[in-house]
Amino acid sequence: MVTLNGQTLTFAEVRRVLFDGEKVTYTDESMKKVKESRKAVEKIVDEERIVYGITTGFGKFSDVYIGKDDVEALQLNLIRSHACGIGEPFPEVVSRAMVLLRANALLKGYSGVRPVVIERLLDLVNANIHPVIPQQGSLGASGDLAPLSHLALVIIGEGEVFYKGERVPAIDALTKEGIFPITLTAKEGLALINGTQAMTAMGVVAYVEAEKLAHQSEVIASMTIEGLRGIIDAFDEDIHLARGYKEQVDVAERIRTYLADSQLTTKQGEIRVQDAYSIRCIPQVHGATWQTLNYVKEKLEIEMNAATDNPLIFDNGEKVLSGGNFHGQPIAFAMDFLAIAMAELANISERRIERLVNPQLNDLPPFLSPEPGLQSGAMIMQYAAASLVSENKTLAHPASVDSIPSSANQEDHVSMGTIGSRHAYQVITNVRRVLAIEAICAMQAAECRGTEKMAQVTNQFFTKGRELVPTISKDRVFSKDIEAMNDWLKAGSFQFTKKTTNIHS
Q1: Catalytic, out of 26, 52, 163, 425
Q2: Which residues are annotated with the PTM 2,3-didehydroalanine (Ser) (predicted)?
C-alpha cells in the first residue's frame, strides 16, 4: 500500500502503483489539511466574497461574479466545456498516473476541495478504472485543462474509462465497482483541472522507460564492441576521471564490468590504434544522456509533489492567492531535454549499426549476410534505423520555445509542455526500436566472432536474444524480429552492479 501525503511521493512508489498495481491511501494528517482549506472555501461562498474561481468565472471571465446559488452549475459547466481533448487517448498507464498525481497534489491542502473528491480519485486507482483522456488539446498553462477535464468527467459519472480491458461509459464501471459519482461544488472543478498532471504523468512514464533503455543501451553497445573487436583501453577509468563527469565515469565503469571477461575486445595497437567515435565515445555520449536523465528525474519528483492549481489557500483561509503554478515551463524544458538526450542514444546507436553492416568499415560478412549478394542480410535494418533517427530529429525540436495566446489574450504565454512530453515518449519509442536493431546486428556479429569468447553478461543477453531472434541463416521478414526484440526490451528489467550482474526479463 502506497500512502500519499502530498509531499513525499517518490519514483519508487509511483512505479509500484503504475506497474505493480499497488493500492493507494492517504495520511490522516494530509486529510486534516484538506478539511481546513475546504472550510475556507465554504466561508468565502457564504460571505459572497469575490475570489477567482470560487465566486467568479474563469480565464477572461474572471471579472464575472457568480452567486452562491450557481456555484455547482459553474463547476459542472467548467468541466463539460473544457473537455475538448482530441486525438488518440493516452496509454492507460499514463491515465492512471494522472489520477494518482492529481490526488497527491490535492492532498497538500492548498486547493479547497472536499475529502470526497480525493477519495473518488483514489477509488479509481484502486479499482483500476482509468479515464479515457485524449492526448491532444493542452497548451500546458492554465494547467492541462482539456486532458484533466476528461479525468474530472469520470468522478461525476460522465465520460469514458478503460475498465477490465474494455472502453466503456464511466458510469457503467463505477456502478460495477460500487463507486458513487459526486456533484462538484465550489472550486472543485477548477481544482481538478488547473494543474500539470497530464504532462507530468506522461513525463513520469517516459522517464521510467528512458531510464531502462539507457541501461539496456550499454549492454547492447558492449555486445557491439565485441562484434567489432573494439579497443577496451578507451574505457580506462583514468581517461574519464580526467574529465570529471560522474555519469561518464559510471558508464565507462559499467562497460568495463560487462566486458571484463571478454576474449573479443582488443588493446590499442593490437588491431587498430583507435576506434571510431561511436565506439570510443560511448561513455561521453551516453554519460551526457544520463546527466539529462538525472535533471529530468529531479524536476519530475518536484512536480509530482507540487501544488499547481489556482487560487491556492494558505493560513486556514486567511490568504487566498491567485498565481501561476499551473504554468508547465519547468516540465516543458525537462521534456524537451529528455527528447534530445534520448534521441542521441539512437543517433550513436545507428552509427554503430552502420559499422556492423558496412563491409568498408569492418571485416565481417557484408551486411552480416549469410550469402552476400544473393541475400541482403541486415542491409535494410540499417535503413530502418536511419529513418527512425531522422524522425527523432524532427520530434526533438523543442516544444517549449513555442507559445500562443489564449482566453482573449488573458493567458498570453503558455508552455506547450504536454506536447513536449508526448514527443519525448514518441522519441523513446523510436530509440527502443533502433536499439533493437543494433542488438540483432551485434548478436549476429558476435556469433561470427565466436560466442564462446563473449563476456558472461553479453553472452547471457545473446542467449536470451536468440530465443526471440534466430540467427540470420537466410533472408526473412526482419520486421518481425525487430518487433520481437523491441517487445523484449520494453518488458525487460536490467539490473547491474559492479560485483554481480543479473539480467531479468
Answers
A1: 52
A2: 142
